[in-house]
Write the structure tokens for this entry.
Amino acid sequence: MKSLRLRLVLLTTAAVAVVWLVTAVFTWRSALHEIEELLNHPPATARHMQKERAELAGEIAKHLLLPMLYALPGLALVLVVAVGFSLRPLRRLTDDLATRAPTRLTPIADTDTPREIVPLIRRLNALFGEIDRALENERRFTADASHELRTPLAALKAQAQVALAAADGSERRHALEQIVLGCDRASHLVTQLLTLARLDAGGGTATLALALRPIAEEVLAGAAGEAIAGACELVLGEGDARVKGDPALLRALLRNLVDNALRHAGATQIELAITESGTRAALTVTDNGRGIVIEERDRVMQRFYRIASADSSASPGSGLGLSIVKRIVELHGGQMQIGDGPHGRGLAVRVNLPLATDK
Amino acid sequence: MRILLVEDDTLLGDALQAGLKQAGHAVDWTRDGIGAETALATEDYAAVVLDLGLPRKDGLEVLRRLRANKRVLPVLILTARDTVEDRIKGLDAGADDYLVKPCDLGELNARLRALLRRAGGQPAPVLAASGITLDPATHAVAYRGEPVELAAKEYALLLALMQQPGRALSRAQLEQHLYAWGDEIGSNAVEVYIHHLRRKLDAEAIRTLRGIGYVIAKDAAA
């Protein structure tokens, strides 16, 4: 029986029918006896007749009532057993869930279960699937992160050992300079990892209506020193838009985009534009640097993916910048596109964000 | 000895190159798998230190190709991939040793010495032939029990000859041992170092085989 409801109804009906049948048999037998009695000794007077009639009716009513009275406790017992039997699949499910280790996220089998709890099991299985995926992501991220942290640590240790064993001053000085560089790199990586971990944990994003232009000005001002050192021109186009978002996260988004263009693209000009179209604000960071070939554009948003650099002296990044940008865009309900820069040269990263509605 | 270092991380590669040089090796450093294959096809190395996560071509693939081409030189994998499965995969692909980052430079050099010893068919840690003893771990050289002071290149040249006593090495082969990419090679540098060595050890210690090269005689089997 596939349905809980059907099982309960059938069992109850059967119990009631049995009691009913017993009552009918008793009543039938008693009525037969009384009628026979009446036929054998017909009443003599009209008064007598009336008395006989009342007695007969009373007798029949009694036989209708008594078996039902005796059967009621039995009926109750039958119902208790029936309900217990019907709810057995629910108990099985409860036991399965109670004995499950938190890491065992395999789906519960939904064959041979009443129709009423199948949706519950399916929902639970879907939930297990989601948790499993989240845990898997976490595991992969931890593995990647430990891999990524090991290389700078290995470099620091090896450089320190080289410095200790260095025969002359210039060799030692070079190794020490490399150590300082390595520390900067490792701390940048740790900052990026923490940002991403915080974003992954979700929540805590303030949503305020805010203007993008002041944030863009602030980020570009912060990058000015590096831009001048690298002979790169920073341009902020006309226009502004108000979006709903977290100012700290939007600042991180812009900083990562500008940093990418500055450090890894070898650009001589980086332009930041803010425009409005319909219900969306568009933030575009365009550079005239090396660009990214089309096949690699999806992969650069993956965590720890770095483009093999032709310029081996370029300092490698954390491989997390665009993952951070992508995650922030997702949290703001926006979209992100990577396209060609001006005249097919360089790169244009375009981010769409929903406009603030309270204008 | 001449070592090929394959490492894509600039900072770590720089340190390893410096560290291996301090141990007296000539080191060529390449940053990706394709570069490693080109170097292996064109130069003669005593050993390779190979990272696995490389741009353009994975380190394991480079290693498999190398072994498929019947090349026997020792390969030491130096990687951040630390699971047991990764180690098994690396060794089964043909690596002779597997080190996980971050490693100790001292350990890396010791393992390389062990690999080079085995490759030269000399299991004893201190090399000995024709009255010369050479300890690759400490760079200590002695002739008939008397310590001898050698310059770095002289030491490297002596090491190459001591690694395979009884086998002659040509001038070109010795140059391969002494110089990495970008090193300036004097036209008769090998002759000059051989001359220095003979002066410091004994004129008879290193023999010249005309038209073939130089050799240190093997001791009679004891």
